[in-house]
Amino acid sequence: MSESGPIQQLSKLTSSRDRTGRVLVAAVVALTTAFVVWELAARPNVSADFTFLWQATRLWAAGRDPYAMRPWVPDWPLADRLFYPLPALIVVWPLQWLSRAAATAIFVAVPAGLLSWSLSRAALWPVITLATPSFVMAVVLGQWTPWLVLAMLWPTLGFMFACKPTLGLACFLYRPSWRSAFGSVALVFLSLALWPGWPAEWLRNLSSVTEHPAPIATPVGGVLALALLRWRRSDGRLLLAMACVPQLLLFADQLPLLLIARSRREAMLLSVGGWVAAGFWFVRESTKDGAVSFAAPYVLAGCYLPALWIVLRRPNEGPVPAWLERLVSSWPAWMRGGAGASTIA
User: Fold this and answer.
1) Whole-model pTM?
2) pLDDT in tens, 115-144
3) Which residues make Cβ contacts (< 8 Å) with residue 313, sequence separation at least 6?
4) DSSP designation for 76
5) Radius of gyration of the chain from its Cα atoms, rounded to whole angstroms
6) Which of 110, 95, 109, 106 lies closest to 55 in space, CA to CA?
């Protein structure tokens, strides 16, 4: 018997055990997330971001205009207008038949479990990135960001970028793909076919949005422009794009930055840095009126600056289109970087 037989069998056994471990981790993360979200959503005085989507989709299904709703009316017992585009309502349409608690639990737990599975493909340590205030806040608030991060890893889900266009654009620029672009455009066209007038109403509601600055425009945030020095890298482009789009600086919207980690040490840095910053914010600011407004410096310190430090430690290397390579050929070497393969997998 050749030696390859036992070796191949051992390889298959190891692979099977790895898959079993990944499934168990994903199941634990998904079920734990579902339980926590269910308990929160079942409380009548707690409303997550997903509550806006769930309520709006139910109104739309009943032939009502969710963009015309104003806060604290009987059909819209919520603190803000609807700020999500119609593609987001289309995606959550199947969940509007369920109770609010069940719909919220499914919306948050499914991407949590799938992220655990995807992140643990090569090793278990990347799952550390879910032990961060960004993930916890995304879960508690019922945010889109776990879906957006999943779409960054699985381009087939790229249509999700159209559900939250600002962060979606930044996530798309991480690793642009035709599948993601086509999926997003197709979903937008579908929404226009179903309701041609929704963009005007949506944009009218957006005019009342507050506390969603671009991080680069905040005090000290200008330092994030240094990410431009790593323009060849997907992680450098992600950081720069994230810094330039409007977002809620309350940790949850910053979840995509966790994909910048490429080692256990970097994952721990992002996790610990995030928790230290979140802890200071919670102790010093969370009980104040307008606490969200005071979170920006803590998010910059705990999420953006550690990510910037990680990115700047890496060489400005990575493949770019031939036309762009020719365009930058006359740049100084320190700006041009190298065309060698990026360390990003």
Assistant:
1) 0.90
2) 999 999 888 889 988 989 999 999 999 999
3) none
4) B
5) 21
6) 95
